[in-house]
Design goal:
The protein is mostly helical. 78% of the residues lie in helices and 0% in strands. Helix 1 packs parallel to helix 8. This is Major facilitator superfamily MFS_1.
């Protein structure tokens, strides 16, 4: 009986890794293409692009409530639903978007599925791990997704560069990958989750953590929305550029995350977030003023460098999680406080891009990134409020991812 249970667990883990690979492939197809799709097919303005983030991020803000509607299902079955919804959104973007209104509809459908699955992935991975091997299992999942996303980036680059594929085919393939992931998850054995369902927790003690999430949400959305838009609108870059940059970011991100984890352990969260903030100021200035430095054709390479650096620094969000880990009153506070942080993050993410689009229209894109530099300086100020690493006694365990 024990051997049967072990065999079933190994089978389920293989299916879970396979589902992760399909989702990594979908991400590699979709992520470098969406902004160019909006520009090439619908020619939207910077204000419309900024405003689009409100409906795109709204499902992330509501994810705790969305998950609550499906409490009667095991995690694996909710994950099936999430990936089918995600696939529907992608297929709708590819084949059922005759106008921009339908793009918004299908993008929201995609976002519901994507945000619904995010908190489930770690929960399912942990449920398939032996005690003490949770990190190993999640690391294996991350490796599979990373390898598959590299294949996706390469397919986008080859497809647009040599075979002149269109966005409908690209989103169709991404949608089929999500369907394949759902099938893999459907074949798994449902089991109770070892993690609690996401809840929200607000404590005065964690105010600095919440404030760091506000600033991260603002910083994140400025770069996710307007950094690609600078490359598209100001430097006239094609989708193949984003596929190539995705390859570079993914390959360099693997050793960077490992080094970053060691840096957090050695120097503490305050040093890491302060360094992140100072580097972000430089990146903001690079995005905004590369064209004004007299670099000529080299200006675009400075922006490429800023893009890669910006993407790598997203990993510094793990320092916020480890900071919370060190100050939490009990292990039971971790998941609901992280969920509250994610909700706050998305509340900011929904609003910042709209005002950024207005600033771009009225004053120019440079001022969007000057504003982002101010956010980075506020992040520096907040990070200086974190006690030195040695003065916070770590007592819990939380995944850095």
């Amino acid at each position: 009986m024990q051997s049967y249970a072990e065999a079933r667990q190994k089978r389920d883990f293989f299916l879970f890794i396979l589902a992760g690979a399909f989702l990594g492939l979908y991400a590699g197809l979709y992520e470098p293409s969406f902004n160019n799709y909006l520009n090439d097919v619908f020619h939207i303005s910077e204000v419309a692009r900024g405003g689009l983030e409100f409906p795109r991020e709204l499902p992330g803000f509501l994810v705790v409530f969305t998950t609550g509607l499906l409490l009667f299902l095991p995690d694996v079955r909710i994950a099936v639903v999430a990936n089918l919804v995600l696939a529907l959104g992608l297929l709708g973007l590819g084949f059922l978007s005759p106008g921009f209104t339908w793009v918004v509809v299908w993008m929201m459908v995609w976002s519901v599925g994507a945000h619904l699955y995010m908190p489930l992935e770690a929960s399912i991975g942990v449920s398939l791990a032996k005690p003490g091997e949770e990190g190993k299992r999640l690391g294996q999942l991350g490796s599979a997704k990373t390898a598959a996303s590299l294949v996706g980036f390469l397919l986008v680059w080859l497809g647009f560069h040599y075979f002149h594929i269109d966005y409908s085919l690209l989103f169709g393939l991404a949608g089929l990958c999500a369907v394949a992931a759902a099938v893999c998850l459907l074949l798994m054995t449902p089991r109770p989750s070892k993690n609690k369902r996401p809840k929200l927790l607000f404590k005065r003690k964690y105010l600095l953590f919440y404030w760091l999430n506000v600033l991260f949400g603002a910083r994140k959305q400025v770069f996710l929305t307007f950094a690609p838009w600078v490359l598209i609108k100001i430097f006239d870059q094609h989708v193949t550029t984003f596929a190539a940059l995705g390859l570079v970011c993914t390959v360099t991100g693997i050793p960077f995350r490992a080094l970053l984890g060691k840096a957090i352990d050695k120097f503490g969260e305050r040093a890491v977030i302060c360094t992140e903030s100072l580097l972000l100021v430089l990146i903001c200035l690079g995005y905004g003023f590369a064209n004004n430095l007299g670099l000529g054709s080299l200006a675009i390479w400075l922006v490429f460098l800023c893009y890669v650096g910006d993407q790598l620094l997203f990993a510094c969000n793990m320092a916020r999680a480890t900071y919370l880990n060190k100050i939490a009153d009990s292990p039971d506070d971790l998941t609901p406080t992280l969920s509250m942080g994610l909700t706050i993050d998305h509340a900011v993410s929904m609003t910042i891009p709209f005002f950024g689009g207005l600033v771009w229209m009225k004053l120019g894109y440079q001022y969007v990134f000057l504003g982002a530099a101010v956010i980075a300086l506020l992040n520096l100020w907040a990070a200086l409020k974190i006690p030195a690493g040695s003065s916070i006694a770590g007592h819990l365990s939380v995944s850095a991812d």
